Amino acid sequence: xxxxxxxxxxxxxxxxxxxxxxxxxxxxxxxxxxxxxxxxxxxxxxxxxxxxxxxxxxxxxxxxxxxxxxxxxxxxxxxxxxxxxxxxxxxxxxxxxxxxxxxxxxxxxxxxxxxxxxxxxxxxxxxxxxxxxxxxxxxxxxxxxxxxxxxxxxxxxxxxxxxxxxxxxxxxxxxxxxxxxxxxxxxxxxxxxxxxxxxxxxxxxxxxxxxxxxxxxxxxxxxxxxxxxxxxxxxxxxxxxxxxxxxxxxxxxxxxxxxxxxxxxxxxxxxxxxxxxxxxxxxxxxxxxxx
Length: 291
Prior knowledge:
Blueprint: H1 2-10, H2 14-31, E1 42-44, E2 47-49, E3 53-55, E4 76-82, H3 94-101, E5 112-116, H4 127-138, E6 144-148, H5 163-184, E7 190-195, H6 201-210, E8 215-219, H7 227-241, E9 247-250, H8 256-264, E10 269-272, H9 274-279, H10 283-288
Parallel strand pairs: 3-4, 3-10, 4-5, 5-6, 6-7, 7-8, 8-9, 9-10
Antiparallel strand pairs: 1-2
Helix pairs in contact: 1-2, 4-5
């Protein structure tokens, strides 16, 4: 039934299909038992994850769905991407997200990641300031942060022409991590999110390793039938990193077998987006039963 409804909603555009999935998550969470098997627990980036399956950034942009997710078998969730100032049809900005997250008790039942980025109108020489503003404002509410490098309608830090800006952003983020940890006593791992379909992956990986980030989120849209390319890229990246940095794989995970393949290819954790939209919220439990 859900697959039929999702296919019908998709005919009216992706936002309608996502709205259906959001409603299904809220309904399913009210019915589902909270019993992720202890055998699925993973220790990654110094955090304890009840399971390896997470919700990808972009689905729950502001964190409203977060309280519903543990009951569905999610092991973590990533919200955002959060930006400093509100932008129509993109994000309400970091102040709105802070107001939502401040209502949730700590410690969180599952790790909460916050993907952060810059406003589209921010000039290159001020991009690092946008990331710093988000880190400072949201530091106490996250369990980890994802540094999202690409804004599709603005400057893309994957591109070689922005190499200097990229290094400025990564330097500022690592300096801020040390500063805020010293001030607050709260350690927050930083992962860099890169799109495997954009930029020079080898150069980006070199930067991630040089600055000693805590994790890598390897993303990228995967059309149906192109899963082998995503797997090949994941295996190549895992080989390059050689277990020095854990990998979170996201993009094109639609079935339990897709999830098994990504974890077998070197991912420490995985994130879902399109699979939930297409198959519904009980996909997570089907995956958990296979891994």
